[in-house]
Amino acid sequence: MAQSNCTQVTQFSLVGFTEEPLTQGNLFLLFLLTYLVTIVGNLGIIILIRASPHLHSPMYYFLGNLAFVDLCSSTIVTPKVMLADLLSEDKTISFTACMMQFFTFAFFATVDCHLLAMMAYDRHVAICQPLLYVTIISSRVCWQLVASSYLFSFLSAIIYTWCVFGGSFCGPNHIDHFFCDEFPVLKLVCSDTHSSEMIFFSFVTINAVGASMFILLSYISIIRTVLRMCSAHNRTRAFHTCASHLMAVSMYFGPAFFMYLQPSSRHGSLDKVASIFYAMVTPMLNPFIYSLRNKEVKGALLKCRSRFFNHWQHRRVLSLRT
Questions:
Q1: FRET pair for 228, CA 20 to 30 Å: which of 51, 63, 78, 198?
Q2: What is the DSSP-derived secondary structure letter of residue 191?
Q3: Roughly how many angstroms between the first and final C-alpha of the chain, as a whole number?
Q4: DSSP E strand stretches across the chain
Q5: Do the Cβ atoms of 216 and 183 come closer than 8 Å?
Q6: Bridge partners of residue 180, in order along the sequence
Q7: Whole-model pTM over 0.90
Q8: Rounded to an integer, what distance in angstroms lies between the CA atom of residue 258 and that of residue 256?
Q9: Greater pLDDT, 180 or 85
Q10: Which residue spans traverse the membrane (predicted)?
Q11: Cα 168 to Cα 101: distance, rounded to the nearest angstrom
């Protein structure tokens, strides 16, 4: 009876991190710097891959998509929630905007899981079946894998959003988080959320746990193949190639598992820290992880810089002559 007489919530208020002005100012500068580095790093990777013909390979095709997804997922959260709200006393967000924010973030986060699994599969074929690499990982296969990932992630995001926002919101509207995430929003639902949590958990298991298990099996096969190599140089090169991907995988899946695969009763203040890692820190660090440890990317960057410098010098000489 009380539920039938309640008024549907039309907007939410984000609690954020703190109400202390000095801390808010420091956090604003930190998050602004993080976001600028994320934009420059990921855009740089995308432009570099498109501008360098010798980077037009499956591995860098997946890396370019990963940079795009990281840029989008960080943009969904950082400008409005992490920057604007820190400087504003009004931290409200409409019901529709909150739902769309969650949907888009869930979509790109799911695509991220699939792309990391595809990159592990790419390394598995390159190291374990090098003679068949061109046949197995063709450009058509790459396009189909990425397209299917986007499609399945879109459908998963719809289910996630229905599970979180499909209930009745008629009580408190203060979200104890800095953006619209699953458990902080579900705490505000008046109706029973057990079935929604089970469906959500099932799809997270399919996407995140499934992708991580696929990555694990791929790297077990890679390690077995590498250990059978006769040349120590080839073993070192193979491990070096895979190290950056493993680092990105651990940085992404660790906080995500902590956030989404623990019981709702155990969620607390550490959720915000974990969310910062997979929403901001990982998208910022991925370009550096893949570029600073990759000779091909560093070589392409030096060539682009030389080409740009030569072009600038040529134009300067022409301008002086005229």
A1: 63
A2: S
A3: 85
A4: 11-14, 92-94, 174-175
A5: no
A6: none
A7: no
A8: 5
A9: 180
A10: 27-49, 61-82, 102-121, 141-162, 198-222, 243-261, 273-292
A11: 19
